[in-house]
Amino acid sequence: MKGGPAEQAGLQAGDIIEYIDSKATRDISLYDARQLLNGAPGSEVKLRVLRAGARPFAVTVRRGMVAVPGAEARMEA
Length: 77
Prior knowledge:
Elements: H1 5-8, E1 16-20, E2 23-24, H2 30-37, E3 44-50, E4 57-62
Antiparallel strand pairs: 1-2, 1-3, 3-4
């Protein structure tokens, strides 16, 4: 999400999270990965990230509130 904790930590669209707090994401379900990523605002989670054209790198993300924007619609005549 734009302005969210991941963006503030430098993550980009297309990045692949390889490890969440030293737990390989290939070994867990999407539900379990989400449980590991969620936590109390202000706490930290360590990620190992794969990015196209770059070496794998580690980043620490400080968890925070994410405001999900509402859906928008318009009709053109």
